[in-house]
# Entry
Amino acid sequence: MERCASDTEADEQQKPLLRRREEDKVPRACCSSRYGLALLSSYGFFVVYSLRVNLSVAMVDMLNNTQQSSGNHSGSVCPSHGSHQQPKHNQSASVYNWDSATQGWILGSFFYGYILTQIPGGYLAGRYGAKWLMGFGILGTVLFTLLTPVAADLGASYLIAVRVLEGIGEGVTFPAMYTMWAAWAPPLERSRLLTISYIGAQLGTVVVLPLSGEICFYWGWPYVFYVFGAVGLAWFFLWAFLVFDSPSSHPRISEQERLYITNSLKNELSTSAGYIPWRAIVTSTPLLAIVVAHFSYNWTFYTLLTLLPTYMNDILGFSIQQNGFLSALPYVGCALMAVLSGQVADYLRETCLYRTVVVRKSFSLIGMIGPAVFLVAAGYTGCNYSVAVTFLTISSALGGVSASGFNINHLDIAPSYAGILLGITNTFATIPGMVGPVIARALTQNNTIEEWQTVFYIAAAINVFGALFYTVFGQGAVQPWAVHTLYSHGD
# Structure
């Protein structure tokens, strides 16, 4: 890493933001409003991802051609596991004769709704406030999740429609939260606060994958949607009563903390309320770098998120119970690395005085090329179950490092428009979720190890390209068009 006393070039203009003066007393993190928001938003993203990934495990139990007897799997490429006596598998729920193509469309349908509300979500959050937009977005997803078993019984097309509607509700969540963090996160605490906030997504995956397997086994797959729908309802009531759009509107925040947050952000936020420099945004090279990195990373992420349980079942031969636990292991590593990387990134910027752009690029390289290497390696482990699961876990764990890389770079280059920028990048980054499962299932119709190697190669190549593109074109300073836009011209 390059090291210097301060952020040079364009970063020079925000040097006061990256150096704490002696007289600036930082309110303690414990019991503070900003860390309370981080924890409650983390719970929210736990709900978001629990409702997104539960179908990946439930799908294994919803298919007629994957019925199991006494908890054992038959018909996988590798020998099945768990031949010892197990409790009886509850198979009282309906099962369906969906082919591989239909499965791909069902698993990818969520993202067709998700992509629609990315940019509108960022705009509406900035215009009308992020709290209720995020709250009602998740509430809508919760309600449609509860309707999933009914939709499945009506037919695949009804299930696809419900998943699209769930995606529409969830599409506003990340842009809304970025908009809220633009008003709540002091620059030198961004990596810490945002990784705490977004680790909920990883925890949702970690908890839901194994728990969904257990629920499917003992209660039946419909209860996967009922249980996590109830968890989402509980979150909504907490969010409605405890969260506020900004420090100035929070009735219980301490005056010290309020001043600390507002003073740390006063030189970063735009002074022209209601004005959005659209031309400057869409022609921004640093934003394009984030778009490419986000798209590339999500190709690998969504490939594993939607199809890892299928791979565990069809290739490695794990039962529905084992499947959930083993599919969750990669995301345990990802969650731990995301939190650790947030602490390290802020330490490097604040204490070691590394430039923001150097930290973001370094973490992105590690968090994208590392996963690509181990994902390809996993495809060559054959039926060596322990090595396959280990490589997949390392791949996802290294991906967690990117949480402090390109993933939060929106707040570095344009804090005032972070929600809109996230909406733009997430729009493109949603495309892999739409087409990835469809392409992967089309390439794995015979469920051979060689076919899955092709899937992993494609994901890895896209990941490496995105990492290199971001390294060349990414930046870490607030862009000129993002500050004092009232006085800018031509945008």
